[in-house]
Design goal:
The chain has helices at 2-12, 15-38, 44-56, 68-77, 80-115, 122-141, 149-152, 154-165, 168-210. The protein is an all-alpha fold. It is globular. It has one domain.
């Protein structure tokens, strides 16, 4: 019973904020599917959706910064076995799912640009979104700003952005975050595209075998 209680506490101790942060990470993915996969017309509502997508996009790579809680959870638990089998895997799955939402969101952006004959701009757009996300991650982690503050507190967000962009310490964090996100994105993008290509190939082979 003690082991069951310890494991349950390790699982449920951070479940509330993890679930909330994963929900926020999935929001830009859902928006990207609607904006860049399903929607065709660039209506005023579509542009509003793009702005919402950009505002919520940093929530996906933001999960990387939640690893700062891992050390505290390991120390609080105190059991090597539970930490190895429960706490660390829980954080790994959490970070992987959250950042995978970021990767898929940008893949959908690239799909949209390619479909409209703008393939040459994919890298530039990806780098731009990495930069904006790095700024957003900093504002979320250190300034404690939320995505919806762009609508509810626009002056506060603008002031925070200008102040931090003029300070070398936030710029160092943003630069490191930008490089880290760009590298992780490139690696996970290759793996994701390979998996998607393999699934597509398997589907084609399966259909041909039925003919």
């Amino acid at each position: 019973m003690n082991w069951v209680t310890t494991i349950w506490q390790a699982i449920s101790g951070t479940s509330d904020w993890m679930a909330w942060n994963l929900f926020l990470a999935v929001v830009p993915l859902v928006l990207s599917v609607w904006l860049f996969r399903r929607s065709m017309a660039r209506s005023p509502l579509w542009w509003v959706g793009v702005l919402a997508f950009i505002a919520f996009l940093p929530n996906a790579p933001y999960v990387l910064t939640d690893l700062i809680h891992l050390v505290d959870d390991i120390r609080a638990n105190g059991s090597l076995l539970v930490n190895t089998l429960v706490v660390i895997p829980k954080y790994l799955v959490f970070v992987l799912v959250g950042f995978q939402a970021y990767v898929l969101s940008l893949i959908n952006v690239g799909y949209y640009l390619r479909r409209h004959g703008l393939s040459s701009y994919i890298l530039q757009v990806e780098l731009l979104l990495h930069g904006l996300s790095a700024i957003g991650v900093y504002l979320g982690r250190f300034e404690r700003l939320n995505s919806w503050y762009i609508v509810t507190r626009p002056h506060h967000v603008l002031r925070s952005v200008m102040e931090n962009l003029l300070d070398w310490r936030p710029l160092i964090f943003m630069t490191i975050a930008f490089v880290l996100m760009a590298l992780l994105y490139w690696l996970m993008k290759q793996v994701t595209l390979a998996v998607l290509l393999q699934k597509r190939y398997a589907t084609v082979v399966q259909r041909r075998s039925r003919v």
